[in-house]
Design goal:
Layout: E1 5-10, H1 14-23, E2 30-36, H2 39-49, E3 53-57, H3 65-75, E4 80-85, E5 103-106, H4 111-133, H5 135-145, H6 148-160, H7 165-174, E6 184-191, H8 200-220, E7 225-230, E8 233-239, H9 245-263, E9 268-272, H10 282-299, E10 304-306, H11 322-334, H12 337-353, H13 357-378, H14 383-387, H15 391-396, H16 401-441, H17 449-456, H18 460-471, H19 475-493, H20 498-504, H21 510-521, H22 525-533
Helix pairs in contact: 2-3, 5-8, 6-7, 8-9, 11-12, 11-13, 12-16, 13-16, 16-18, 19-21
Length: 534
């Protein structure tokens, strides 16, 4: 890596932090971008400085190094952690094995120990960095581990269906590939093209690197999976494993999004199907993931969209030009305004070229109006209210098929505009519900984002997006503000002891409560109360 690795030092002993900091020179390959005396301050530093690695003591006040590492792995999955530990703390540090700690620095810390530690750490980080950035290595790994016959089967099956199923399934089983041993979900991944000048080779290289990086993440967490390039995206079939699979896989997918943004400067969107079993359900799973991905662009629900979070559309039975009507329905729900215009113009040209236009006019009217009605129903919109009149009366006034097409176009565009406004309202409802839940449960010591998401029925990644986009803050900061404002009120208007106020505001540790109050208001709780008496 050409640039230096950014490091944060966390230790409650100033002397230890100072000794380590003084030894970290530019030649070591590291630069210290911040230091903290406790884990809570460290979390704030991570958000501000985006370090590559956090070097933390295990035993500290408020929260120890083990708990700090869990927070980092959950909220900042691309940040690495190394421990400072004493000889008598190795048994305590066994928990770090499951937390993927990269290295250890043992107390008492000598200059030689620090130098040796930094050399080892840099070598490990360089190796990982090289694996993530070396496109040729990613390409080689892809070619070695994904047999072409498997990819060809999956792609062909999505296109041809059962006609290819029986023979291909038996061949794949001989390679150890099966989908009938456990349930699976299908995720469809698309890469956001940020540069219009990309040639085909660059796009394909980016796709290969994204696929391989996501594969390595799934392998690291032990999830069985298959993947293949399909159309302009990447398909991942991920097998169900362990308890609370959907919650855990959401965290893994969220980590993938962050890793790709951090290391490859690539933005992706992921559509996720319901859980299925056997090859025969593969097309259904892909269709669900594709629809979910369409909502990602149209409804801006975040980078990861689950089909089971979306409202079910009303099924429409069409009797004429079904493929054209379905294309128009899809464009109305998931495409752009120009896509809608294109499909309607295509129908318009087809109608004008038909010599039997008078005969077909009513059937076209029924089918096209049905698209508008179904689109409105899918959004739970009162179409009569939107049109400010009865739909049958409106269409009865048409004297030419062009009037029908003009009306269909303008009505769909109006519904899309209202749907965009409703989407924003829906996001605000989630934010309001989350805020209300936190206001009602801030006294709970154990309240967490996962707990709030369970109550709302949404994913952690989506709620995190809503907080940052609409509240311009994070879940933790917002919860802290609620607790601090309540503490301020209790200190001012009650005679409760400070330890009682801390517990009433959701803090087990009165010292951490005092620490947080002083950081928030600039004065300790005791000193604040004394100013009220003067």
């Amino acid at each position: 890596m050409d640039e230096q690795y950014r490091m944060i030092l966390v230790d409650d002993e100033d002397e230890v932090r100072g000794r380590i900091n003084s030894k970290i020179t530019p030649e070591s390959g590291f630069v210290v971008v911040g230091s903290a005396g406790n884990g809570y301050d460290a979390v704030e530093l991570i958000e501000k400085t985006a370090p590559h690695i956090v070097l933390t003591d295990i035993k500290m006040p408020y929260i120890d190094g083990i708990e700090l590492t869990r927070i980092i792995k959950r909220d900042y999955p691309t940040v690495k952690v190394a421990f400072i530990t004493g000889y008598d703390e190795f048994e305590y540090a066994r928990e770090a094995v499951d937390l993927h700690i990269v290295s250890y620095l043992t107390k008492p810390v000598s200059q030689e120990d620090i130098t040796s530690f930094l050399i080892r750490l840099k070598q490990e980080l360089d190796t990982e960095y090289e694996q993530k950035y070396d496109i040729e290595k990613l390409r080689s790994r892809y070619e070695q581990h994904i047999p072409m016959i498997i990819e060809n089967f999956f792609s062909s099956y999505l296109i041809t269906g059962r006609r290819y199923y029986d023979e291909g399934r038996d061949n794949l089983r001989s390679y150890g590939v099966t989908l009938d041993d456990t349930r699976y979900l299908l995720s469809y991944v698309k890469i956001e093209q940020e540069q219009h000048t990309d040639d085909v080779k660059q796009r394909e290289e980016r796709k290969v690197s994204v696929r391989t990086t996501m594969q390595s993440t799934l392998e690291r967490y032990g999830y069985g999976h298959y993947s293949f390039l399909f159309l302009d995206g990447i398909v991942f079939i991920i097998k169900e494993s362990g308890e609370e699979f959907m919650k855990k896989i959401d965290q893994v997918l969220y980590e993938m999004v962050k890793i790709l943004q951090r290391f490859l400067s690539v933005s992706i969107s992921i559509g996720v199907s319901r859980l299925h079993r056997e090859f025969s359900s593969l097309q259904d799973a892909y269709h669900e993931a594709e629809i979910a991905l369409g909502y990602s662009a149209f409804l801006n629900t975040g980078r990861i969209v689950y089909i089971n979070q979306l409202q079910k559309d009303t099924t429409t039975v069409l009797s004429l030009a079904e493929h054209d009507i379905q294309r128009l329905e899809y464009a109305a729900k998931f495409g752009t305004d120009d896509d809608v215009r294109t499909h309607i113009d295509s129908l318009r040209r087809s109608t004008h070229s038909d010599q039997q236009i008078i005969t077909n006019y009513r059937l076209y009217t029924i089918n096209l109006v049905n698209v508008v009605v179904s689109f409105a129903e899918s959004m739970k919109v009162d179409l009569q209210e939107v049109l400010n009149g009865d739909i049958l009366e409106i269409i009865s006034r048409f004297r030419h098929v062009d009037q029908l097409y003009d009306w269909v176009l303008s009505t769909i565009l109006l519904l899309r505009e209202q749907n965009e406004a409703a989407r924003k309202d829906n996001s605000q409802r989630y934010i309001d519900a989350a805020a209300a839940y936190m206001q009602e449960n801030y006294q709970d010591f154990t309240i967490s984002m996962e707990q709030v998401c369970d109550d709302l029925g949404i994913s952690i990644s989506y709620l995190s997006l809503l907080f940052r986009k609409h509240m311009k803050t994070t879940f933790v900061k917002y919860l802290t503000s609620i607790r601090m404002e309540k503490a301020h009120e209790l200190l001012r208007f009650t005679g409760d002891r400070i330890i009682e106020i801390a517990q009433s505001c959701g803090y087990r540790d009165v010292y951490y409560f005092s620490h947080s109050f002083k950081k928030y208001y600039g004065v300790s709780p005791r000193n604040y109360r004394e100013t009220l008496d003067t």
